[in-house]
Amino acid sequence: MRKVKLQMQMSIDGFVAGPDGEMDWMSWNWGDDINKYVTDLTTPVDTILLGRNMAGGFISHWKEITKNPDNPQYPFARIMYDTPKVIFSKTLPKSDPVLNEWDNSIIANGIISEEIKQLKAQPGKDIIVYGGANFVSNLIKYNLINEYHLFINPAVIGSGKTIFKEREERLNLKLIEATAFSCGIVVLCYHPAQ
Q: CA–CA distance from 181 to each of 34, 136, 191 (Å)?
């Protein structure tokens, strides 16, 4: 069965975005060490899951970088842009014209737990989730994540959006690895303990 991996940037105090979605607190002066970690994390992946609110910015960001082969991020951007994406939305119909701008993307608007279980049962490589906060909160609520890769940024922002707000009962996690990087980010990798 395919694994669902979460890669999420967080502040030290547990927020994934500011109250109005601000992300200016994130560290992006990544070195070769953290870039290698991300490459190793995404190499065994053939599907990206995104919430509707995250999809537009995510896809347009990587598409813009693919227009310039001289950009140092070009090889990774090509992977991010070319990898098939499943966008979860309660409001976009499956035939929405916005898909014309979102190459390699399909809309999923069924029951999230059932949609994810069907994806995990299909043949293929692993699946990675990047966000947004509400979408990830629902994945955590229904215990659909197999690996948590939490990128803890050296910032305290005081308030904002969290990914654990929908969880109604305790979730025990087992620390698999903690890795500090030169840019100040520490990545904590957890698996569900059960």
A: 6, 24, 21
